[in-house]
Amino acid sequence: MFTTHSFSDFDSAAQAALTYLHQRMGLSLWMITRTELDDWIVLQAEDHGYGVQKGDVFHWPDSFCSRMVRGEGPHIAPQSDLVEVYRNAPIAQQVPIGAYVGVPITYGNGALFGTLCAIDPQPQPDNLADELPLVELIAKLLSTILDFFLKAEMASRREEQQQFLTERDEVTGFYSHLGWEKLLASEEARCQKFGFPVSVIIVDLEEGQRPPAEVDRLMGQAAKIIRTICRQEDLCARIGARQFAILCIECHISQADFIRERLALGFQQGNITVDLGIAERSPQQGLHAAVDMAKSAAHEQGRFRTKVKV
């Protein structure tokens, strides 16, 4: 049963719910998931046989849950192979599924966040369907808890950003490298909790022999372009003598690529030579890996180069 203590975060509430549901209803795998475009991200898992763990990512269109959300299949299917839409779903060909449970988890405005779901390799008794009111109640409670903690995280993010501004680069006014590292750590923790999409853009200014004062002037000009083009929620830092990093919060790679294209045009119009690299965080590898990939992309591509006027 649920314990009487309060939950310190969404993770602990979600895990308590999964543990309770497994104890009450059985089924080998219970999950709390988030949907992001075609990604189906596992935020919490109570697994007893499938080998699924937190951070795993599956293909949302392949899932039973995608069909359940569209109203094409029931919330509970004690014998899922008797439901045509589930029997024909790609995931049914990838893993053994004899029974299925699934209900939506939503944001405060009712939009889909993800699902509370379960599967088992063996068919279950028909009376499994009688548990639907309980599963729906728990999903609604989790949706309410989710909304509370999402709002709390947004407030915490704003406070951290102000705090980390003490680590400021004097020339550009952006976060310093130390501030950037603190931001990465905080956002990685949020991504692990809630599955936020985050992208990284790296801006490398041209190499060349210039006096330090000239480099600073050039970096100041580049910072003005970045500040003008990036969204209010994007976090910008100077992480090297000639290098900027931009953390695009709750931003898929397609959205970040639009920002990159605008940056490329802005630098071209400003006659500043840059290399731009872009990458999106993957739940398996995290934000630091995305930063490394964006740096590599900037180094390898070098496709936004225009002559600098000195």
From TrEMBL:
Domain GGDEF: start-end pairs: 196-310
Highest taxon of source: Bacteria
Entries under InterPro entries matching the protein: GAF, GAF-like_dom_sf, GGDEF_dom, Nucleotide_cyclase, Rev_trsase/Diguanyl_cyclase
Name of the molecule in the record: Diguanylate cyclase
